[in-house]
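Board notes (copied after class):
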Amino acid sequence: MRKTILITGTSSGLGRATALRFQREGWNVIATMRSPGQESELTRLDNVLVTRLDVQDPDSIHAAVSAGIARFGRIDALVNNAGYGAYGPLEATPVEKIRRQFDVNVLGLLATTQAVLPHLRAQGSGVIVNVSSMGGRMAFPLGALYHGTKFAVEGISESLQYELAPLGIAVKVVEPGFMHTDFAGRSLDISNDEDIEAYQPLVRSLMGALGELSANGTGPEVAAGVVYQAVLDDSPRLRYAAGADAERMLAGREQASDADFFTGVRTQFGL
């Protein structure tokens, strides 16, 4: 029987690459996004349902899950990919952006998982892949909000694996590094107040570093391949680094003491 996967945030980047990868591998794909009316590529593919899902809109989440089951009869895997990055000095960040960052990256992930769980539990099988980041296990300057959400995704996933494994449901975490996507443009939200001069050298340093790291990052197709590997892996493994930079930096973080790692970051950003 052809298996079915539901993926959030498929309008671009890793989400789109993941949808294309699973479709090529013969899966049914429920490709969700906030504005499906603007989609033209995925809608032309066989065994792909493009439907609306906004992780901040619970009704749209349940409607997408129901539409996917109505179309394909089942859901075997969920990829919680939708997300974005809020960066900048906390002092300069409006509270609305703080709430939105956690609403999308954390509460939206939880709401989508809750909507799919009754179906997975009833069938006694399934895989949930939560897209975290190498920034879910290390943090850089001006990313308190983004890193806070990705650290939360790591903790949520680590805990969920215990309660869901007896039900036949596996939990996996994919941790991409920097990718050649529009994340630094479309999905990156920088807050800044140039009147607060004290932060400006760090803001300039961050923007330069993000541009360079993204330019040297991994293609989203590579990360999509790691998501595919995680879904098919029936071992109890939880975490999967995606990209050479993620593998290198996560390995270095595990080996370094807090003091050594913090010194390296401060040196990199001129602190």
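Comment from the instructor: Helices lie at 13-24, 58-72, 95-123, 144-164, 200-215, 220-232, 244-255, 258-268. The chain has a mean pLDDT of 93.
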